[in-house]
Design brief:
This protein has about 325 residues and is mainly alpha-helical. The chain has two domains: about 110 residues, Cytochrome Bc1 Complex, Chain D, domain 2 (Orthogonal Bundle); about 140 residues, Cytochrome c-like domain (Cytochrome Bc1 Complex, Chain D, domain 2), CATH 1.10.760.10. The protein contains 13 helices and four strands. It has a two-stranded antiparallel ribbon with strand order 1-2. The chain is globular.
Length: about 325
């Protein structure tokens, strides 16, 4: 009997101890998850701030990161028509579209690249790596050719993109990522009105005919061309008005920020329409949008699964197109 009581006491003690240990571990796990959730929520709510480049380590990896940043800031010096590494782009720099080498919030910044890639993109209809996305920009925004995914230049740019987004939790897209989605206008964006906005705010840097201004060495641009043979082609992201309008509202003219824009939403839509109404390189990407129903509402080339014209898909108004697309999704479910 005594033996049984001792064993029973031991069993109860072990059971209680095990429960206490389980409860303690479970409680710690809950606290850790709560902390991670709080961190993720803060990353979403607070406007992203790029890490200080002075913190890049003085190591081989650090040298690769710095080279990657320089490639993005001064692409033409390495990969432009007079580049020191290869001649595969139009002379523009990546940071012409990704302000301050992708460090400026709402300036097509790189804050969410490391946290969200690889990612599925409807445009290609596949899961894309960072390398794929860089080469996509090389072909479109820089109207050029792809570079070897294993080259030092590609590895350097990828290293930089991962470094600049290193503090963003996986899967999180922080405030200020990419560019701003401006509210749709009830009317189409107007290139005629946009020309007046361009003349008042843009031509002093980008020149009267949008040709940009070359640096004295003629290797790269001080101010990039907005149209013409040396600008981005019709397959570039900025050729879509929703992307261009949000970008220009928060970054142009020089000195504009999200908190202190220098033009109105309406002016941003109109100047985007004017710039994208001008001639530029035409390059075909027949592989785009393998599923037509996923095509962006502002992609200005058919075919479409709706009845709206190419002109409306280019200039808007976009609200009716989006409403029709949303209704089609609901009916498909």
């Amino acid at each position: 009997m005594t033996y049984c009581k001792k064993n029973l006491f031991a069993l109860v003690f072990v059971s209680v101890g095990s429960f206490s240990m389980f409860f303690s571990c479970n409680n710690e796990s809950s606290k850790q998850k709560a902390a991670e959730t709080t961190k993720d929520t803060a990353a979403v709510k607070a406007e992203w701030v790029a890490p200080d480049t002075n913190s890049i380590a003085a190591t081989n990896e650090g040298s690769l990161i710095r080279y990657g940043r320089d490639l993005i800031a001064n692409t033409a010096n390495y990969l432009g028509p007079k580049g020191s590494v290869a001649h595969v782009s139009n002379g523009m720099n990546c940071q012409n579209c990704h302000i301050n080498a992708g460090a400026k919030p709402y300036g097509n910044c790189f804050s969410a690249v490391a946290s969200t890639y690889p990612t599925f993109r409807p445009r290609s209809g596949k899961v894309e790596s960072i390398e794929f996305r860089i080469n996509d920009c090389m072909q479109r925004s820089l109207n050029g050719k792809t570079i070897d995914s294993l080259s030092k230049e590609m590895r350097a740019m990828v290293a930089y993109l991962k470094w600049i987004g290193k503090d963003v939790p996986k899967g999180v897209k922080p405030k200020g990522a990419g560019s701003e989605d401006l509210p749709f206008m009830e009317r189409p964006a107007d290139p005629v009105k946009g020309k007046l906005v361009f003349m008042a705010n843009c031509q002093k840097c980008h020149q009267q005919n949008g040709e940009g201004l070359l640096k004295p060495d003629a290797v790269s641009y001080l101010y990039p061309p907005l149209w013409g043979p040396h600008s981005y082609n019709v397959g570039a992201g900025l050729y879509r008005l929703t992307k261009f309008a949000g970008f220009v509202k928060n970054s142009m003219p020089f000195g504009a920020t999200h908190e202190k824009p220098q033009i109105t939403n309406e002016e941003a839509w109109d100047v985007a329409a004017f710039v994208n109404s001008q001639p530029r390189p035409i390059k075909s990407f027949p592989q785009d949008w393998p599923k037509l129903e996923t095509k962006s509402i502002d992609y200005p080339y058919g075919s479409y699964t709706d009845s709206f014209t190419e002109k409306q898909h280019k200039y808007g108004p976009f609200a009716p197109i989006k409403k029709a697309k949303d209704n089609a999704k609901k009916q498909a479910k």
